[in-house]
Amino acid sequence: VASVRTYSLWLWLSCRALAALLLAYGAAKLVQWCWHQYELFRSLKDIPGPGGCCALLFTPRYFLHSLSTNPKRAGSTVEFFQWIRGLSEIHRPKGVFKIYAGLYPIVFLCTAETAEPLLSSTSNLKKSVIYDNMHPWLGSGGLLTSYGDRWRQHRKLLTPAFHFRVLDNFLPIINEQGDRLVQELSQLASETYVNLFPTLSKCALSTICETAMGLKVHSKESTSAVYEYERDLETAIKLFMKRVLQPWTWLDVVYSATSRGVKFGEVVKRLHCFTTKVIVERQKAEAARHSAGNNEAKEGVLDIDGGGGKALVAPHDTASALTETGAERPAFLDLLSHYYRQGIFSVEDMRQEVDTFMFAGHDTSAQTLTWTLFALAINPGVQRKVHAELDSVFGKRAAGDITKSHVTKLTYLDRVLKETMRIFTIVPWVGRSLTEPLKIGNYTIPEGCTCYVFAYGIHRDPAHYTDPEAFDPDRFLPENCSRNHPFAFVPFSAGPRNCIGQKFAMLELKVLLAKVLTNFRVFSCNNRDDLLFDADILLRTKRPIKIRLQPRHGASF
């Protein structure tokens, strides 16, 4: 009995001691965190912007602002974007301002001069903490979400996928998708105004499916699967943005307990199943091509349960590896498979990069196509010049197969695209978490702080763009561009972490626009003043843009 009592006493004392240690550890961590926050607030006190005690109450200031201006949209992405846009205009003279999202201070850089130190930095390459909310979906090791040595290695490995020889191989795919787009749009050509975005989105998704994954969207079964993937993609983006605007859900343990968190998990699971299935099918097809007796067939079969790949090594001539795979039309996935066979990438690495490419390359293209057609519809003089250039290149007939030579001649269309991306900045902001202090003019932003480059505001700086709201493609004439600040136009970001796929994007956009505009004139019942901008990840409108299509001479339908 005495031994039992002694054991019980020791157990009780041990539990008390453990509880005291845990309490002391928690208190120390809390004090450390509070001190860090105090130091952060103190170091940012001279940077202008709304802040103060409401940040300590964990109440985003934009919510109070939107509640007072438009209660129906309080706390929405619409009001948040309007608020940030207003702050960038107010604080443009200094080029920098701060806000608080709950207890998180965020510094916005809204001029080319203040954005340059961050975008050109070779050390501050880590994406903002908001991107951590994408990890369940895109992983932490993909090109969008990784940083440091892993990002540098993946960037180097994936760059050959966008070599000019590879892009040339993508031209037949883009041409085919453009022809299908024209046929679908011909069914919508009438006296009525329609929302073209769903049709343009399907075209962009089909293009990215074939170029990224080698998946042809022709059969009823594949079309249904891809469009289900598109719906899940849209749902994932919406859920992600709702989470971004609710900082208290940024903790995974909190978010996973919410109904939205559960739904997000289900959607992500379906997205992963789709891309994994495509990877497996592509690998089986590749293995079959190498079944003549060499080891390629054996190496080409994926271990779906497999572990990680070996340490990353420098690639060989990977542009040649991609263009000479033996596939009828090589895809981005073939380059990843090449690295898998070398032991450089794991299956998970492949899936993360494919998911990233699909996410980054689909919606952006569809939205840019929509904005460009709208810009031409409300600027008929510019549209006439585009048609004149197209007629001079293709004759007064619909464009057939568009070649690289054709694309290089479409210089005015190129300027129209750039001016569209300036005014309707598709990715309005780019975020980084500082891994070391950053000097911005007279301010030093400390390590650990989140910074956002507000590209939408940079593109409207009167210091670099006379009459910035006017649509003038000739701003991008070579003689005018040479005078511009190198960071005054950043639709694809800039510096070491710029968009790796920008050449592909411009090629795709030019070919698809040439196909559409050789066949149609475009009109809109909307004015720019009618638009209510809604920025989640991309710049959109709250209500759809309506376009009317009128067939031109020599239309191909």
UniProtKB/TrEMBL annotation:
One of its GO terms (cellular component) is endoplasmic reticulum membrane. GO terms for molecular function: heme binding; iron ion binding; monooxygenase activity; oxidoreductase activity, acting on paired donors, with incorporation or reduction of molecular oxygen. The keyword Endoplasmic reticulum applies. This is Putative cytochrome p450 monooxygenase. It comes from the Eukaryota. Keywords: Endoplasmic reticulum, Heme, Iron, Membrane, Metal-binding, Monooxygenase, Oxidoreductase. It is found in: Endoplasmic reticulum membrane. The lineage of its organism: Eukaryota, Metazoa, Ecdysozoa, Arthropoda, Chelicerata. Its cofactor is heme. Heme binds at residue 499. Its main location: endoplasmic reticulum. Pfam families: p450. Belongs to the cytochrome P450 family.
